[in-house]
Design goal:
single chain; 386 residues; alpha/beta; Rossmann fold; 2 domains; six-stranded mixed sheet; five-stranded parallel sheet; 18 helices; 18% strand; globular
Length: 386
Amino acid sequence: METAFIQRPRARAELQRALKRSPVVALLGPRQCGKTTLARQVAGTGSQFFDLESSMDRSSLAVAPERTLAPLRGLVVLDEVQTMPQILPVLRVLADRPGPPARFLLLGSASPDLIRGASESLAGRVAFVQLGGFDVTETGEETTARLWERGGFPRSFLAADDGGSYAWRQDFIETFLSRDAARFGISLPPEGLRRFWTMLAHLHGGTLNTAELGRAVSLDQKTASRYVDILAGAFLVRRLPPWFENTGKRLVKAPKIYVRDSGVLHALLGLRTSTEIRSHPRLGASWEGFALEHAVGLLNAERDAYFWGTHGGAELDLIISRGGAKYGFEFKFADAPVTTKSMRVAMTDLSLKRLFVVHPGTRRFELDDAIVALPLTGVAEEATRL
């Protein structure tokens, strides 16, 4: 099976909308998530492509980038743009031309410096679109288990067998450790960073304490926090912030941490097979993170995704706001989930309009007043209603 056989209509439509409204669009996501494939599908024939990791393309833009790019028309794609941040001010000049005669699509493995540089240099001219791995609406409901076990990176999901998928993910991790990490500003040696990242995998779904994390790898809290920020900026981990609301209860104020791709999480934990995954103590947390990542993407909630928790033990995996109403999501690895005291507390304290309990089964059913159990694919249907 080839990557091209997996269509991504939702991502493609979002990218096309962004290109219509902005002279510059930055398509950001981790390496190997399919950015170039999607860009080529959207661009079609007649577009110009520059791979800034190619010595030939890089040389053509290094000396006189404005002279090279100014005569071009239509869509101009600049791949791996994070390797040449000095080109961003040039794009500002070109984007301000009447018309404009060309639109620019920037592809990059995100880093805090790249996002900050694009936001500053191209303020008012750039739209940001995020792309992750495959989601269940793209691969099909029948592939949910394989998507969870292997993760959404195309080459991992589409590998001929589990062994090939696991090997690809280990190579992906090694490439980041040995090459990308230093570019993003992480000075730990590869083995130290692997230990740091693996510790985050063991914390997956739990609250983040950077002081304790730093001590475990001989880093001060400030440096440990910065490294987590870099991994988050590279779309490798998610730092989910807490929701604050005055309910008269002591709230959890530390963020929760997730490894964003479930397949990478399993590789970091050394889990090669479905049997090993399903017998691991972090089974529930693994599925929670997988389902949460899907929900945030399908709901287009990157900017307003939170969790809620009290020191009394009540918690909610995900809370989002739409049209002045609040909606909650719980992710349970159970075919027949039931309501809990924690859910009822969240409904009351947060005045939720609906609470959805997302499970790995295939049925949607009512659990209680305004509490609904639904399969992961049902989140996409709910997204159109919220």
